[in-house]
Each structure stands twice: as C-alpha cells, then as structure tokens.
Amino acid sequence: MSISSALQTGVSGLQANSKAVGGISENIANANTVGYRRGFAQFVTTTASGSAGAGSLSVAAVEGVDMSTAGDLVTTNSATDMAISGSGFFVVSLRADETVQTNYLLTRAGSFLPDEDGNLVNAAGYYLAGYPYDLDGELGDVDRSSFSQMETVNVGDITLSAAATTEIATLGNLPAQETGLATPGDPFTTSSEYFTALGSSERLNFSWQPTATENQWTVTVSDSTGADLGSVTVDFNDSGSLAGSPASYSGVVSTATAPAGFAFDTATGLATVTLDGGTTPQTITIDMGAPDTFDGVTQFDGDFTQTFTRDGSSVGELTRTEIDDDGTLFGVFDNGQRRALYEIPVAVVSNPNGLSQVSGNAYALTNDSGTFQALKANTGTTGAISSEELESSNVDIAEEMTDLIQVQRAFSTNAKVITTVDEMMSETAQLKR
Fold this sequence. Notes:
The chain is mainly beta and 433 residues long.
C-alpha cells in the first residue's frame, strides 16, 4: 500500500465512523419513540484492485435496522392504544380510506387516537387499517395478501340499528304452598321487556294463577295493552328426582284477536305469541321450560321469583370500544349491546429486514421484504394485540453510549492516520532540498 493509499483508507475510516455516529445519534434521539427499531452500522471491508488482485483496503459502513428485538410494553389509559406482543406490524395508510395500495405502510407504533372524523390515526399521521365486519358480525372472505379490502378503522358516530325481540326465556320459582287451597289466592304477576322492529320498548305480561288442584298453575300471557293473548295450565312433579319441575302442559287456550295470536307446544314448553304492532306482526317465542327439566319455571315451597332473558335491542349509540388479543375491535353501545366492528390484522413479511424505512417510524414493502400477509392476530406465529399498551423503543441507552465511545476512538485513530500520512508526505516533498 502506498502513502496516498493509506491516506484514502484513513478517509474511508472517517466516513464510515461518521455514518456510525449518525446512526447512534438517531437511536439516542428516538429512545422514547413508541415502537422505534434501533439502527446500527456494520463495517465492511472494500478493496480497489486491478487484474492482479492487489489494491488498498478501505472500510464502508452498511446501515441496518434491528427488527427482531422487541421493546418493552408500557401500560396506558387509552382504549385505542395498541401493542403487538410478538412478531408482525400494524397496517397503516397515508390518508383515510386510501385506495392506492402503494400508500399502505407497516408500523409498530400503536398510539392511535380518533381524529375529528373518528378515524384512528397515530402520532405520525398514519391511519390504522383493518377489515370491517358486516351488520351480522361476519367478516366474509378477505384477500389477506393485499390491502384492497382494508378500510380505515373508524370509531366515530356509530349507531347500532334496533333489533326486534324474537326470543324470551324465563326462569323462576312458583310457591308450591299456594296451590291446592279451597280458595286460591290472587295471581302472581310479572312482565318482560321486549323490543319492536322500530326499537321501542314494550312489555309482555305474565299472570300465574294457582288452582285448587295441588301443584297446578294456569299462566296467562297478555300484551302491553293488557289484552289477553292466551293461557296454558302447568302441572308440576311433586316427588322423586324430578320434583319441582314441570310434569305436563295442558289446556292451551288462545284468546288473541287476529292478527295477534297465541300457540303453545306442550312437548317443549315453548309458547309462540304474535303481536299486532305493525304492517307485519311480530312473533316471539317464549321458553317456559320443557317437561321434566329444570331449565325454566320450577315449583318449590318458598317465594315467587321470575326473571327473563331476551334478544333484541333499542337503537344504540357507541359509548366505548374494546379490543381483544385476536385484534377484534368491539363497539359497546348504550343499549347494552356489544358488536364486532373491525378486525385489526397483524401484517407479516418473509424478510422484515428487507423493509424500507420511511419517515414517521414506518416501513414500506420492497422486493427484498418478500411476501406480505395480513393475518388474524394471536394465531400461529403471529403476535397478539394488547390494548391499552404501547411498545417502547428497543434502544438501550447504555449500549448506545458504549458504542459511541468505541466509534469516537476509531474516528480519532483514523484522523491520526491521516495526520501521520500528511507529515510523511511533507517529509517526502522535502527530500529534494
């Protein structure tokens, strides 16, 4: 190696260590950046040689990103903050409801908040993308190898449509001591709420009349106006392992005026009532409990109790959101309903180190990153999504400071090489004197 070659080698050392210092400074500056992946510089030997293979050795810094090391998870108080525990990325876009697939990016920064339109956007201005559920809570077939079916996740003014009640189930106890009396007492009355197709709240009324026959009751069902729809007699078992359960149903009577109706299946304990509340009458099935079972109304000595469960709901406004570890974002409404709104997928690529880093702590797909898939979270090797948590930077300040000392020493030494070569060249120039 000639003196001039040594000078060029020293210069390459200064350049390589300068690039390394730049990477360290970026890491230190982003030590508190959510989801940040530290960069690093690897030194690679370069050679300028001719056909004979002789030449001077120099050095170059090749930059890389530590994609495999995850940061610690930090708990927050925001329901829309998310972190991926494991491998994968969130899918984000440059604009809301982006249609250009090349404008979709990947990120680990899950600090999302709704903007003025309700779209979830992170601090870098990237919009969270996901797959929307339909009104029936179905996702349908989605193409997980592209961004074409994704939408911006929106938690703004979402209204849940009213759902008409179709089923009511009743549980409770009838006081056995009230039956078999010469003069039976007054009926025990209660009611169950139900919802019409327009979301209004109405009530079905139940009147349980004890009879002069022991362990026998007659139940009458009436609509919200008090008009009787029909009745049925229930006999209860009084001994053995089935004591207290319905033994049989009989004496079914319909008193409903068309188009209202009343029917009862004595084999199953299911009553079917038809309510005249619109152009199309509303039909509700009432489960009182099958004979010889304890899954409905029972009769034991004690107090009268009766509770109901039913489907259907009034119109509901979104009150809050919840996110499961599989990435399902649920909306919780003020009518008590909870419905799946979006699936937030976790994007995986064959070679994360091949992603191209862009501004805003995000990454773009490249040919080197390999195949892309947007998978359901917490399945297979895909990471789980944790709500109300954020992933901190994977920068270790102690490690960065140690690297900074090493790079500084190397830079100083290369600078010393250059000054030494400069002195030697000066000496050589003075030989002629």
